[in-house]
Design brief:
This protein is 30% helix and 22% strand. By secondary structure, it is of the alpha/beta class. A hairpin with a 5-residue loop joins β2 and β3.
């Protein structure tokens, strides 16, 4: 039986006094969307995520992570992976901190690592329509990048389908903004650079009548966190790993 220990990896940690610029440097690694915050004894205090990394865009800043820390999903090394998945889903995070009996952080488990194993061990029931989120926030390809910052901070979503005349033409994620240090130059260029210049144009999309098992397969195959759902070319929903987990019988 697979347990958290089998998937535990080392994840960098921060302290309250660490600056956001340090957190953002860690989060530029494609592997991490969250980083844990600990006290001097390395006990878990919470986590700081990539969305918070976009709230402060100045090149140099003395702003610390303390005001942005949220409660983290936490598990123990011997917990079965189904329990780990439930905790991650409960907190709607991309990872869970692995702690010992004194809540010292000993590592973390990423949902992206668990996901392929979880879906291979359980039957997935229902269609994409049954499980997708219909609350989709889209971006226009001609909108300035600054608009994406606003959407991320206001909605908390990780990615946004990009449309042209209501038709899907791409997708842009918070990772697109973090990668390459774009946060450092946001103030200077965000008003002039359109979303269309940084979006991913090759988008894997679903239809409402596709099975949720198809969504799961495509998420694993393309190693993405979410997929837009289209009907007649228009975006009608979005499916992420958490939506797929809800389809487990």
């Amino acid at each position: 039986m697979k347990v958290a220990q089998d998937f535990r990896i080392e994840i960098p940690v921060l302290k309250f006094s660490d600056q956001i610029t340090k957190a953002r440097q860690i989060l530029r690694d494609d592997r991490f969307r969250e980083v844990y915050v600990v006290d001097d004894a390395k006990k878990l205090l919470g986590y700081f995520d990539i969305t918070d990394g976009l709230r402060v865009t100045a090149t140099r800043s003395n702003v610390t992570v303390e005001g942005f820390v949220k409660d983290a999903a936490e598990v123990h090394a011997a917990d079965q992976i189904e329990q780990v998945a439930r905790e991650i889903k409960k907190f709607h995070t991309d990872s869970a901190a692995v702690v010992d009996g004194q809540r010292h952080v000993t590592g973390g488990v990423l949902l992206s690592d668990l996901f392929p194993v979880i879906i291979s061990r359980h039957e997935l029931c229902g269609s994409v329509l049954d499980h997708m989120s219909g609350n989709v926030v889209t971006a226009d390809e001609t909108s300035p990048i600054q608009h994406i910052y606003t959407l991320i901070v206001q909605s908390g979503f990780s990615a946004f389908p990009v449309v042209r005349k209501k038709k899907l033409v791409g997708i842009v994620s918070r990772r697109d903004l973090i990668r390459g240090g774009r946060t450092r130059t946001a103030r200077a260029h965000a008003e002039h650079t359109p979303v269309g210049e940084i979006m991913t144009r090759e988008v894997i999309a679903l239809k409402p009548d596709d099975m949720i098992s198809t969504a799961a397969r495509l998420l694993v195959q393309h190693d993405v966190s979410c997929l837009p759902v289209i009907d007649g070319g228009a975006v009608v929903g979005i499916v992420d790993r958490h939506d797929v987990l809800a389809g487990i019988r």
